[in-house]
Structure formats: C-alpha cells, structure tokens
Amino acid sequence: MNKGQIESRLIEGNNRYIKDEEDLKSDVLLRQKLTDGQHPFAIVLSCADSRVVPEMIFDCNIGELFVVRVAGNIANSSSIASIEYAVANIGCELIVVLGHESCGAVTATIKGGDNGKNLNHLCSYISPSIELADDVQVNSVVKANAKYNAELLVKNSEIISGFVNSGKLKIQPAYYSLANGKVDFL
Ligand SMILES: [Zn+2]
C-alpha cells in the first residue's frame, strides 16, 4: 500500500467503527501466519487512555498496526526509539499521532504546578502546545499537541527525519472524538 492507500484504509476502518460495523476478527490461522514476522502498514502514536484503542478505532486486526501508547501521545526518547524500529526495520510509511478529546495528560499540563518527577517529564513534552493552540481549551491544546509531537518525531530522530526528507514517510497528526468515535486528520 502507498501512503494514500494507507490513509484510505484507516479512514474506511474508522467509518466502520463509527457505524458499529467492524469486521475485526483474529483467529488461530492468522496468529500462526504472523509467527513468521510482522508487516504492519501504519504506526500509531496514541495516548494510553483506555477509551482510545487504535486497533478498534481503525478496525484493524493483529499485525496491522504498530501502536505506541503513552499518556499524552508524546514523542520522548522511548516512544521515538520504538517508532524508529518500525520505520527502519519494518518499513512503515505512515505515522498517525493520535490525540483525543478530554485528554487527562493535556488537562494536567494546562493546570500546571509540580506533579512530581515523572509526570513533570511527561508534561514537559505537552506544555509548548499551550502557546501553540488557538486557545487554552483542553481540546484545542490536544490538537496543537498532536501537531507539536509530530514535529518532535522529526526534530529528535535522525532516522525518522531521514525517511521523511526522502519522501518515504509521512507523519499525520489526528484528533479522536470520544463520543462519536470519529478520527479527524489535522
Ligand atoms: Zn489522553
């Protein structure tokens, strides 16, 4: 699949999910087939929020998406290292950075203050988005954050920037609405 076909596949899967018409089904034959190796067609950097499950949202089966999940869908060293593997060794050509409505990590970042070493680390990847957003409403910052961390993937990875610059890789920020299940590419 080329990049356009991958995007179409994701949008079609999301449309099935919105209409409760998923045809996701793994079985023993598929699991056995995948023991030879994985060939996911896209990477998704998503929040850890339990309501945001990329495989379900895009109606994808096991082996189809390479998903990295961390609160606030941030591009830190760990998530970048995971994504670099999928780009360099598997050959994925599309990364979706998927923010979502009412994200708790973004809400905590807007609220500010000292949240302790670990959450402070996480929020430091989100806080620049407050300035970049149209306003300080959480969902505006979520959208800015998806775009900002998409840029960080390129800025902080020679592997990812190399593939982007040679036209072999596209990074697509996106926003997921909790109630209707729709993904909007930003
Ligand atoms: Zn979240």
CATH superfamily: Carbonic anhydrase
Mean pLDDT: 96
Instruction: Please name the CATH topology.
Output: Beta-carbonic Anhydrase, Chain A
Compute the number of strand runs. 5
Largest β sheet strand count, sense and barrel closure:
5 strands, mixed
CATH C-level label: Alpha Beta
Residue stretches low in confidence (pLDDT < 50, at least 5 long) are none
Work out the helicity level: 40-55%
Q: Give the amount of beta strand, in percent.
A: 5-15%
So, CATH architecture? 3-Layer(aba) Sandwich
Distinct small molecules? zinc ion
Helix/strand-derived class?
alpha/beta
Helix tally? 9
The domain tally reads 1
Distance between the termini: 22 Å
Strand order of the largest sheet: 2-1-3-4-5
The ordered string of helix (H) and strand (E) elements is: HHEHEHEHHHHHEE
What's the Cα radius of gyration? 16 Å
Shape: globular
